[in-house]
């Protein structure tokens, strides 16, 4: 891509919902809460049974170490409540509302389906057996970077306007900006 490169090295932490196409999200006890440079929200190292997995952290406030991260069915969530990491099919892992501050609102509970409003405003009707987690994805607010070096550390390279270049460097280059000079 243009204007992307450099930056600090990032370790990738594989989340539970990336494991496979038919892996189901399960509940777990929070062991650690970490910042992941590849995501906008915080992640939690959870222990479920004998295995340790990473999951998105959510809720109304930052959960504490030792709390349970409960995966529930859409049919169990209250009307007007907020859920995140919503699965599209029963028995699969969450796909919807996984960014910082994202959460789907429960609009209506029907006999076999649940109507939710996505963060984009779109209304979706999903099976009541689909899994989700209550709350919204927790993460710190974005901060102002302030300097060019802060952008470079994030992997953003400088971009120069074509009109500011020489004519040999860009098709729009070499212009004299005569439209800005007023003749009196």
Report the C-alpha radius of gyration, rounded: 23 Å
Tell me, what is the CATH class of the domain at 16-137? Mainly Beta
Mean pLDDT: 86
Tell me, briefly, the overall form.
elongated
Provide the CATH topology of the domain at 16-137. SH3 type barrels
Structure classification: mainly beta
Can you count the helices? 1
CATH architecture of the domain at 16-137: Roll
Beta strands, count = 12
| Main β-sheet description | 6 strands, antiparallel
Strand arrangement, major sheet: 6-11-7-8-9-10
Low-confidence stretches: none
Termini separation: 45 Å
Strand content: 25-35%
H/E topology pattern: EEEEEEEEEEEEH
Overall helicity? under 10%
List the helices and strands and how they pair.
Layout: E1 28-34, E2 43-48, E3 51-56, E4 58-59, E5 68-69, E6 72-73, E7 82-84, E8 104-109, E9 113-117, E10 123-127, E11 131-134, E12 136-137, H1 148-153
Antiparallel strand pairs: 1-2, 1-5, 2-3, 4-12, 6-11, 7-8, 7-11, 8-9, 9-10
């Amino acid at each position: 891509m243009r204007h992307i490169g450099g930056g600090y090295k990032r370790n990738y932490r594989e989340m539970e919902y990336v494991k496979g196409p038919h892996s189901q999200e399960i509940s777990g006890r929070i062991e650690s809460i970490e910042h992941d440079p590849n995501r906008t929200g915080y992640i939690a190292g959870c222990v479920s049974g004998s295995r340790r997995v990473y999951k998105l952290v959510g809720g109304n406030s930052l959960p504490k170490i030792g709390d349970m991260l409960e995966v529930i069915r859409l049919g169990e969530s209250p009307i007007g409540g907020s859920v995140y990491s919503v699965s599209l099919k029963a028995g699969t892992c969450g796909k919807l509302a996984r960014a910082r501050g994202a959460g789907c609102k429960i609009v209506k509970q029907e006999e076999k389906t649940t109507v939710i409003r996505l963060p984009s405003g779109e209304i979706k009707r999903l099976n009541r057996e689909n899994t989700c987690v209550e709350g919204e994805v927790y993460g710190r607010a974005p901060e102002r970077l302030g300097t060019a070096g802060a952008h470079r550390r994030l992997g953003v390279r400088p971009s120069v306007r074509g009109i500011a270049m020489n004519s040999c460097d860009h098709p729009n280059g070499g212009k004299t900006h005569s439209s800005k000079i007023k003749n009196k």
